[in-house]
Amino acid sequence: MPVIIHEIFINAPIEVCFDLARDVDIHMKTTAKSKERAVAGVKSGLMENSDQVTWEAVHLGVKQKLTAKIIELERPYRFTDVMVKGVFHSFTHTHEFVVKENGTVMKDRFVYCSPLGLLGTIADKVFLEKYMKRFIVNRANELKKIAENN
């Protein structure tokens, strides 16, 4: 089961970073490359504990839907979302925020299990883990740009 961990320093207050990371509208802006859009559940604004959103996006050339639910939220320090329906066997994405001098460290911890057993494990090794890491890093970089330019 792959575990992707990424940290980034953002020159912005923790509350700003936390709210941007759970904002559906901002999520769509930061994932424009995969054409993500909210099609069910919370479609705009800030997500709260127990909220769900269904995303439609194009990943690896395939249009797909994925529903995620926030199962834990402690403002402004962390929130966790899990997949409740989608292409993965499962995933858990924990977003943590730590106050640092002149800003915030945003930490992503993404743990997932691919579908299809052995074929999924092979896909992880060949391309999927790298793809998911790049997706998380790109989104974090976009969040950083937005937070630092507000």
What report would you give on this structure?
There is one protein chain. By secondary structure, this protein is α+β, with helices and mostly antiparallel strands. It has a single domain (3-148), classed as Alpha-D-Glucose-1,6-Bisphosphate, Chain A, domain 4. It has 3 helices and 7 strands; from the N terminus they run E-H-H-E-E-E-E-E-E-H. The protein has helices at residues 14-21, 24-30, 117-148, and strands at 3-10, 37-41, 52-59, 62-74, 78-85, 90-100, 103-113. It has a 7-stranded antiparallel β-sheet, covered by helices on one side. Helix 2 packs across helix 3. The longest helix is centred in the C-terminal third of the chain and has 32 residues, at 117-148. The model has no long low-confidence stretch (mean pLDDT 95).
